[in-house]
Give the backbone structure.
Amino acid sequence: MWPGNSKLSGAAGRWVGSSPELSRLQQLGTRTYLVPEFAIYSRRDSGETRLPARGTDAGMNTLRLAVLALGLSSLAACAPRRPPPAPPTPETLYREGMAAYAARRYDRAIERLESFARDNFGDARVPEARLTLGRARVSKREYVAAAADFQRVVTDFPTHPLGRDARFGMCDAYTRLSPRPQLDPEYTNAAIGHCEAFARDYPGAAEAGLATQRVAEMRAKLAQKAYENGMFYFKRRAYDAAVVYFEDAATRFPNTHFAPTALLRMYESYQRIGYTEEAAEVRARLLRDYAASPEARGLAG
């Protein structure tokens, strides 16, 4: 039980004799007691503190350590503070960022190169740093941020030799962002635009063939999406709606393998709703434009 005042009942309660530690407590305005548990309690202001009992070696050693710790904490509070470390120089940021990218430490490379490019716009190495930053983000599959870095190189440094690499980087990033055909085609359309522009503006580049190939892949995705939308209505006998999507697949993406299949489904849709003239026109179109396709050979036979 904690003592509430200076009077204690019972034979065990009495004032404790003097010691260096207790004298220090009395100078601080602390009242000290001895209770039956042979422990010394002190109270100052509204707080109470239990101190080890006097008369035992372990208790006195603990008390001395507590007083010593109090003194050391006071000295530490008065010690002079060290100045903060100097910020890294542009040279350090650039060197460490490029080294981290070469070592495939992409998080470190992004952190260093982003700081360098942001704070040193006039530095001649910023285009290379920004391009490497985009490539590091591609490696981490952060394609939206990577495309933004490549765009910064093209926009901020339109005549720089690295602009070609940055433009192919945009083609690559948006191709990787392109989702399954059933989903929103925003990134697919962006990939087509950037890859077509690269192949047109840099026909002799080593990446021109790859850019053209990716355009074909993205167009096939859009054709598949249109064809599958048409089949959704075709299977539900909503032939008028189905014809709209089949026409879109065949007209917008004539070089994909979905085009002859879409024309065949158009022909069947017109037949089922009794549009004989339209069906005949679509049949002739299929036989003329895709004569070698399995769909055309099936109709011709």
Remarks:
- The longest strand covers residues 40-44.
